[in-house]
């Protein structure tokens, strides 16, 4: 107990000071670099001769709002399944995503839209920033319950930079297609988080095991997250694809893929469940794998059948991962993956990248017609064959795995800095470490009050 | 106990095998028949000379997403009111709708958009498939808690086919107008489910009565479903109406109707409640009747006043139905209607059909101008008088009731097949039959942990 | 107890009779005055020579749906934090907003779109009506738990009228700009409610203090409200701004402001919290202040940096308000502000108005180009200088405070009418006064049921 006050004070101040510093620094960088783009600047927009219907805003804002709901409602509530970590799950999601979207506006802006000394922002940068926040939240899922909020902010600080660089290498240098981010978002976010979780391995986590499960109501809250992610995933994959047929086809393919992954998940969950019972963990997570697995290929001519097949495969693989691979991951590989992001984002992300390799390799001018330009511009311009595109896609997957692994390792070392506030092994998955927590039942159940009594008391 | 293992195994395998079979068969049929339509196929779309803003996707996708939220979030959570059946309510909604939307893509495709040997899909087929899934979920509401998931999938298998045929008869053969589905979705879904529930009548259901009510938190979860259904209903009714004034007017009428049904519901609920207290069952359900009752007429020139009057009527009738008619339905007609779909979808659906008869019969060229073509094409083309249209609308209601009743009876016989896994009378409304269920409170309430103690423990 | 039956009956009938009267009167007024506008009337719309893409519906309906979700889901669930008042919070939100949107359609229609004896309605009137409902719900937040539903309806009856007049004075007479309603919605709603709460001051409220806090699950429900408000706020502020760059820029500015207010809130909450712990009340509320504070200025050339700075300031001020000023407000000023609307809507609303004064005063033709016409038409037309616009903006704030204060006082006197049903001091924040309330746990936790046993019972 001796000496703890000052240490306690320094720990107490980590979160507020880090928030203030990061927000201050971000604001200064915004002041210097960030400007409205040609569609959001009053004077520039009105200089042009165009109708309001030409604004990209009207083609992309509804999708943006769906993505926004997925990031904040979807990811936030999906992680509420832990019985005593609901405040942290939804609260830290809120904090992390709010920081990540600002920081990624800067990082992605420097890499993608830096022009005449300024970053220009509009609806596309909003969607891209939310995508990056999504990747950070995937990594958060791997270490949920085992890190403090200051640690998480530092993770986001690093991860957003590496996300931006990896995305730049894939999309701009390698000419890889990845509209819904099977590689750039899901694979990257998952393996970054998993390697980071490996570095933070806690041999004594058993002390908090009793808090690691769900309770009845927390599982229902988590289903809010699941369903919002599920319904809006078609918007996620299509948010940044080519307008017209591209966006339309992407939404359609994702819709089918998710439906099939749901049936695959129910089938496998019942098949491997004790007495044939379904497991909420599978339904909450694996049913979403259909959205991840077509992240690369849904803008391509995947066909409706291809979407169903891909989704079904992802749902089954993901369910089997939860059942059989997660325990191995912890026992053999010392990776404690709280939300099973390896099953929902890792394996389906890699599968999605490989599916993209396949579908890109099968691309023909006949199948895409003049649409080839918008899906595979380098093939359309004759710079590449379909096979070459496929090889580049495959190479993109390896680059992503490399960036994610190295980044996760660096992140783990960063988060292990001894002065950082981290919960004890016996205090993991516990809101009280970070929050003022009210009791479960402040007021005792009362017998029904009669109106007459109330009147009499008057 | 003797002999049960093998039987138990066969029951255990029903759900997974049925899921795998249905998904496999659907995927094969998709491979053979389903193709992108002219707006989702890369080569066909880019062949045309049109701007991206011409794509129907941008006019209908936001409405689709609202409908999608209603089907999965709305229906799913609305049924979570049961205290021990939340996993099943939201989970089986998820399963059923995921299957129904695939299967109805095929059935509706064969009937409505089969061309040169193929079904062509895009945003309209997505909305239609979700509508059909909505009808299946309405029927699910009537038998909620009394059937297993394999039984429900078989119900959906049959119902989707009959839904498609009934819709084809009404819209294509009879020239009936029913944009928001007062007949095709609500009346059909409700009476299909009610007749089915009649066939499955359980005289011993008393054994599970203690689980049939709600608890405080389950009622709040159910309100999530209510509110999402309520806010998005304008999009539901307008999702497939004519673009421009048609869609705009439909959304507006539905908005007013819902507001009035909400006031009607509060008024009647307090009027008939003990000591003037409001009943959550009424608010959760009857307030939505305003959306159902204008399903047919909201695209017509119903007028804002007409919308208010219709909504108010529906809210009051529905509330009175919950209070007085549901008990009679069970005692006299042996229909155990778990969610009261007769009050929310049955009566308001029939009222909505009759309102459509009235408003169609009052249609004049003066009132609709050139808009007559998009609302009543057969009248505009001179093939029918307004009175004739009204008669056809009325006939459509009878056809729907016939299809629903015969279909529900067939469905009931199908679900009674003795080898199908069905919960015992004493195990109805109970998640544990189908799910691994965690406890309510795994960790005891702790007294607040002091940061100093945590530090000391370090 | 003697004599209470008749009195009880008269109290019991207040809500139903008031609902019936208000709905009836509204319907009659709709019948006489409300008509479809040129975009929703079938004959008028088709008379014109325009494409469907010209309909304002497609530019504003997605934003409307987001606003609609904020009003009903956002406000409804945000107030569910009270442990025993969830039914009332979400239910009365539903009732009040359903009435307010009808009534404000009339009031705003008379003031803004009355033409040839009729009010013409369409998507803009829907958005405006929802905005007014939002203001009513803000006032509701100040008196949450201390009034009955009949009182609340009377409050809405008065407040909607004053809201409409105040808005008319600001926008039409003073030429004030306030797209997202920092003044017309937030400042007005907050101070109306706060003054009303002052008039209804209950010195004996201590008797209900034990019910005034949250419990673990009610805080999670409240976060549903918070997050939906947060994600859709960009649509709220931009719903009625000029199409094109105006709407685009407004959404972008609001997005940044909210992100910064979230970081500011986390920083300050941890800074002032015991042992550095975060407080859910701050996160649920103050993080939203970023949306309020740019309600006036987000359509202007606020710059991305300006948005961050404003949001951060609002988040910090709001958090400090919850921590330090709310107790003073009750002790010194006798204002019992249940939800702390002074911190979320009052102070940030006033700050937002002042920010609008500043940004309007800095407006130049150079910065806005031809966009000046759509943001500051009076400056563009040479009728005013930027400084004059700023002075008018400031004057608009005072007018709003005046209308809100006088209106709130009148409202308080109205609600104090002795025959109105109001909960006892000891029955505040208690659902049982108004609702049939089920218990918390009807069925005891059971040990897992084995499938074999179920089979044997058959």
UniProtKB/TrEMBL annotation, chains A, B, C:
A matching Pfam family: Ammonium_transp
Gene Ontology biological process terms from the UniProt entry: ammonium homeostasis; transepithelial ammonium transport
Entry GO terms, CC: basolateral plasma membrane; spectrin-associated cytoskeleton
Signal peptide, first to last residue: 1-27
Bilayer topology: Multi-pass membrane protein
Catalytic reactions on record: CO2(out) = CO2(in); methylamine(out) = methylamine(in); NH4(+)(in) = NH4(+)(out)
Keyword check for Ligase: no
Domain Ammonium transporter AmtB-like: 26-418
Keywords linked to the UniProt accession: Ammonia transport, Cell membrane, Glycoprotein, Membrane, Signal, Transmembrane, Transmembrane helix, Transport
Record localization: Basolateral cell membrane
Subunit-level organization: Interacts (via C-terminus) with ANK2 and ANK3; required for targeting to the basolateral membrane.
Function according to Swiss-Prot or TrEMBL: Ammonium transporter involved in the maintenance of acid-base homeostasis. Transports ammonium and its related derivative methylammonium across the basolateral plasma membrane of epithelial cells likely contributing to renal transepithelial ammonia transport and ammonia metabolism. May transport either NH4(+) or NH3 ammonia species predominantly mediating an electrogenic NH4(+) transport. May act as a CO2 channel providing for renal acid secretion.
Family statement drawn from the similarity comment of this UniProt entry: Belongs to the ammonium transporter (TC 2.A.49) family. Rh subfamily.
Name this polypeptide is given: Ammonium transporter Rh type B
Organism: Cebus imitator (Panamanian white-faced capuchin)
């Amino acid at each position: 107990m001796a000496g703890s006050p000052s240490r306690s004070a320094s720990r107490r101040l980590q979160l507020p000071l880090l928030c203030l510093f990061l927000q201050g620094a971000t604001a200064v960088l915004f002041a210097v670099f960030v400007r409205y783009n040609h569609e959001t600047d009053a004077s520039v927009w009105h200089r042009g001769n165009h109708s309001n219907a030409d604004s990209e805003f009207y083609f992309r804002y509804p999708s943006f709002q769906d993505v926004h709901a997925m990031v904040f409602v979807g990811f936030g509530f999906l992680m509420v399944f832990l019985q005593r970590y609901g405040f942290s799950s939804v609260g830290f999601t809120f904090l992390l995503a709010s920081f990540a979207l600002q920081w990624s506006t800067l990082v992605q802006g420097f890499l993608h839209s830096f022009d005449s000394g300024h970053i220009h922002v509009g609806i596309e940068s909003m969607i891209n920033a939310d995508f990056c926040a999504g990747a950070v939240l995937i990594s958060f899922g791997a270490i949920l319950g085992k890190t403090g909020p200051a640690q998480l902010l530092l993770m986001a600080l690093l991860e957003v930079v590496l996300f931006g660089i990896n995305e730049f290498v894939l999309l701009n240098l390698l000419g890889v297609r990845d509209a819904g981010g099977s590689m750039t978002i899901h694979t990257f976010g998952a393996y970054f988080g998993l390697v980071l979780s490996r570095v933070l391995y806690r041999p004594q986590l058993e002390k908090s095991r009793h808090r690691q499960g769900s309770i009845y109501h927390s599982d229902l809250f988590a289903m809010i997250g699941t369903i919002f992610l599920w319904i809006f995933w078609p918007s996620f994959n299509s948010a940044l694809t080519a307008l017209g047929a591209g966006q339309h086809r992407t939404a359609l393919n994702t819709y089918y893929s998710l439906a099939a992954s749901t049936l695959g998940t129910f089938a496998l969950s019942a098949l491997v469940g004790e007495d044939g019972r379904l497991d909420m963990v599978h339904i909450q997570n694996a049913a979403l794998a259909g959205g991840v697995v077509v992240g690369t290929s849904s803008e391509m001519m995947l066909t409706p059948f291809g979407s169903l097949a891909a989704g079904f495969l992802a749902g089954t693989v993901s369910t089997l991962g939860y059942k059989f691979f997660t325990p191995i991951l912890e026992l053999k590989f010392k990776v404690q993956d709280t939300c099973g992001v390896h099953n929902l984002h890792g394996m389906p992300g890699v599968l999605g990248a490989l599916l993209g390799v396949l579908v890109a390799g099968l691309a023909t001018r006949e199948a895409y017609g003049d649409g080839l330009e918008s899906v595979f511009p380098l093939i359309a311009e004759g710079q590449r064959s379909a096979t070459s595109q496929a090889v580049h896609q495959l190479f993109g997957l390896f680059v992503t795995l490399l960036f994610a692994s190295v980044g996760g390792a660096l992140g783990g070392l960063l988060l292990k800095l001894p002065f950082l506030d981290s919960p004890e092994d016996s205090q993991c998955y516990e809101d009280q470490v970070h929050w003022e927590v009210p009791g479960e039942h402040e007021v005792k159940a009362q017998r029904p009050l009669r109106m007459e009594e109330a009147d009499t008391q008057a």
